[in-house]
Write a structure and sequence with these properties.
Blueprint: H1 2-20, H2 27-33, H3 35-41, H4 60-75, H5 100-111, E1 124-126, E2 132-134, H6 135-145, H7 156-159, H8 179-191, H9 202-207, H10 212-223
Antiparallel strand pairs: 1-2
């Protein structure tokens, strides 16, 4: 029952996100405006290093929301920063001079690109019982079926069985992303350090009961998902 209730909340969150984030960017215009992004994320959105996420093909709504949230946090000051947008220190000042149309155009440009597959690795993780298990198998299990015992929902409901996400609802394409980046974000959502997933706390609820082993396994599995 707990799993079904959480799945319903995630679905309602998707509807809310669809209603609140509009995108009307022009990809060709965004290509000319994305030079500031290309230095870290690559001209085609496939960053050369896992310290910066791949943003190619994540979905226009999702990319635009992140750009708006990062810009909002950057422009906030004092105590407002604690509850505003999404803090990404590496992007401090990079979006401050851009208009909302600029953000829409950049989002459209990167949404038109194709993400390159990072690939999964063969590795083992130690679960809470102390047993070493195959990380790929555990990652696949949690991604596709969740963990009913702890109330973790399957990732497929929002991000699709193949990891392509749900662009109209604002859920990003995850398949092929750097495992290190996915792991970092899941840990941030679990710890409440990343909070720009809406009032429904979609990702915070999904990650709340993930173990360290499940997070590492999920990230590794998703990196090779296509």
């Amino acid at each position: 029952m707990k799993k079904h209730v959480l799945s319903m909340l995630l679905a309602l969150g998707a509807a809310a996100l669809t209603q609140t984030v509009s995108a009307a960017g022009v990809a060709s215009a965004g290509a000319d405006k994305s030079a500031v992004c290309a230095a870290c994320h690559g001209a085609d959105g496939n960053s050369p290093a896992p310290s910066f996420p791949k943003i190619a093909g994540l979905g226009e709504r999702y990319i635009l929301k992140q750009l708006r949230d990062i810009q909002a946090w950057d422009k906030a000051s004092g105590s407002d920063k604690a509850s505003t947008g999404r803090p990404v220190v590496e992007m401090t000042g990079l979006l401050s001079g851009l208009t909302d149309q600029d953000l829409q155009d950049i989002a459209a440009h990167y949404a038109d690109q194709t993400i390159q597959l990072s690939g999964s690795k063969e590795l083992t993780v130690k679960i809470n019982s102390g047993e070493d298990v195959d990380a790929l198998k555990l990652g696949q299990q949690v991604y596709r079926a969740g963990n009913e015992e702890t109330g973790v929902p399957a990732c497929t409901g929002c991000h699709s069985p193949t990891g392509v996400g749900n662009a109209p609802a604002g859920y990003p394409h995850l398949g092929g992303q750097y495992a290190q980046y996915i792991e970092k974000q899941l840990r941030a959502f679990r710890a409440g350090e990343r909070t720009n997933d809406g009032d429904q706390m979609i990702m915070r609820l999904a990650a709340k009961h993930l173990s360290d082993a499940e997070i590492k396994s999920l990230a590794n599995y998703i990196a090779g998902l296509h």
